[in-house]
Every structure is written in structure tokens, then in C-alpha cells.
């Protein structure tokens, strides 16, 4: 098994390796509540889209397009908006949970039917679920809601075996790393929230 992973890593393209490196930098900066996370996120998702196209993970490409849009939005929102710059980390309101539910279930059904109907995807349900839950998590990250880590980890949990299924071992390793970092990100944001109250 380890030999297979080492061989797969050696066959990994430089684009995939760079996408993973930038993705690691992005999530570490995000965990520390740094606005510069968006710059590295933009680099990572741009490279990832090219790699994912070769693997026929079309919903994942759409997810990365969404990441790109939300990264640009998040960067703008955190740097130019005085209110956003000073906005503390907070929890979701009931209304925001309704938006999250709409993004997850609306996105899932939309992607599933598109993937099933007009693409050659062999994993439409799986790909759609990973994408929809990540969409909701990224929306919450831009809003500085602590629950972003929960939604992103639901997506990560299902994404790891999907990426292994597609022989994208480096992306699977990155996603496993992101899963662990998201746990620490949640705990760190929880501490920041407590400090904000003092």
C-alpha cells in the first residue's frame, strides 16, 4: 500500500503538487484568521481545476470555481469593508442555518442532476455531496462563522475516499490534512470567540 502511494506521488504532476502546497498554506492562514489565506486559496483552486478536469470530477471543478469566487469575495470583504474587518467570529443564526440548508440540499440536487444528465461522471452522487457541503462551508468562512469548519469537514470526510477512488492520492492526502487542520481551526476560533467576549 505504501509503495503504491509513493509510486502515485512520484507520478503526480507539478501542478497538483503546487495546488496542494498552496492549499496547505491557505488553510493554515485561515485557521489563524489571516486575510492572506485568500491569496493562496486563489492560487490553489486555479491549479486544482486543471488537475480535476483530467480526473473528470466536474462538480469538484464547479466547487473550485465557487472557491475562486468566494476567495475573491472573502478577500474583498475582509480588506475593504470596515465593518467586516472588525467583524468578530460568531455562530450561525437560525436564518443563516436556513441558508446553509438551502446551499447544501439545493446544491446537491442541482449538481447530481447535472452530473447524471450531461456528464460522463461515474460518481455523480458522491461528487455532488462533497461539492454542496463545501459550498456551504466556504460561504460560512467568508461570513466568519465558526460552523464553517464543521461543514468543510463533512465535505472533507467524503472527499478523501472519492479522491482515492480517482487515484488523486496527493489531493486525498491534502484533504486528510485539511480535515485535521479544520478540527484545530474550530478549536482556535472557539478560543478567539471567548476572548472577544472578554
UniProtKB/TrEMBL annotation:
It is a multi-pass membrane protein. The keyword Zinc-finger does not apply. It is found in: Cell membrane. InterPro entries: NMN_transpt_PnuC (IPR006419). The keyword Lipid metabolism does not apply. Coiled coil: none annotated. The chain crosses the membrane at residues 36-55, 61-78, 99-118, 124-142, 149-164, 170-189. Pfam families: NMN_transporter (PF04973). Its main location: membrane. Keywords: Cell membrane, Membrane, Transmembrane, Transmembrane helix, Transport. Belongs to the nicotinamide ribonucleoside (NR) uptake permease (TC 4.B.1) family. Required for nicotinamide riboside transport across the inner membrane. This is Nicotinamide riboside transporter PnuC. It comes from Sphingobacterium pedocola. The lineage of its organism: Bacteria, Pseudomonadati, Bacteroidota, Sphingobacteriia, Sphingobacteriales.
